[in-house]
Amino acid sequence: METISHRNVDERRKRVRRLKKLIVAVVIVTLLLLTVCCLLLFFKIEKLESRVDTIVAKKNNIEEFTSEEKVASSIVYSADTKTKEQWEGKDSEKLTKEEELDKTIKEKKVYLTFDDGPGQYTDELLDVLAEYDIKATFFVIGKSDEHSIKMYKRIVKEGHTLAMHSYTHKYDKIYESVKMFDEDFNKLSDLLYEATGERPKYYRFPGGSSNTVSNLPMTNFISYLNKKGITYFDWNVINGDATGKKLSSEQMINSVMSGIRQHDTSIVLMHDMVSKNTTVKSLPALIEKLQKEDYVILPITKYTKAIQHVKAESVK
Ligand SMILES: [Zn+2]
């Protein structure tokens, strides 16, 4: 009798254990399924969001077409055998996502610019930008070593704007005469063309267009760039990494945030140099703060408002 009841108890225990195992298995499978579903939904949302952005940008582009542009483009259509649709298709294909945004968005635009590279931190800067899928602008100087050539290439390949900041960055040399400026300009332009296959279209004067260190009046060099069809960019916001003081990441970010609140278009001056590791370290937090406050971070394109201390059109 006793053995039978023992057997019964044993069997019941086994059944309970089996049931427990089953419940645990069901819970684990359910959790796994839920996780997979969440991940799938997340990717789907990401994809849809980027599609919505493109559609909105395209729609705004079409609305922005002025009647004058329409007249101009209709002349192009009639001169060409392609249909209007084909032209528009071709035209919209040519613009990158960033160019479309730069063309359509009118406020809260921030352009992160890095001067004086390539250097020790260029790779790290590019890694951070890639991580956040942000495009920036690099105003580079001339360096022909293997690492620098690799950096010029990487900047272009990853969709950033590669722009010029003089070959030597030596004020007394480049600003000595227009001839010297021209030599320096061509040397850098050729170097970057050889490295990347593209001629840069934008320039930043060492010291800015309003510097007081130049031997000749800066109007000489502005006139030179105007004739070449090169747009130069100064800045209206700084992170303070070239002020000579050792600033913390937080101070740099505060400097940028208080600057950008005063402009619709903010061109932020930063540096890509050996001594500027705080700039790299502060970048993730800066990007996150900007994105949280709905600022649009863009690389300089042909649609960017030229921020110039001395206006190009004021010089013949
Ligand atoms: Zn510089």
TrEMBL record:
InterPro entries: Glyco_hydro/deAcase_b/a-brl (IPR011330), NODB_dom (IPR002509), Polysacc_deacetylase_ArnD (IPR050248). The keyword Transcription regulation does not apply. It comes from Velocimicrobium porci. One of its GO terms (biological process) is carbohydrate metabolic process. This is Polysaccharide deacetylase. PANTHER family: GLYCOSYL TRANSFERASE-RELATED, POLYSACCHARIDE DEACETYLASE YHEN-RELATED. PROSITE patterns: NODB. Gene3D superfamilies: Glycoside hydrolase/deacetylase (3.20.20.370). GO terms for molecular function: hydrolase activity, acting on carbon-nitrogen (but not peptide) bonds. Keywords: Membrane, Transmembrane, Transmembrane helix. It comes from the Bacteria. Residues 108-298 form the NodB homology domain.
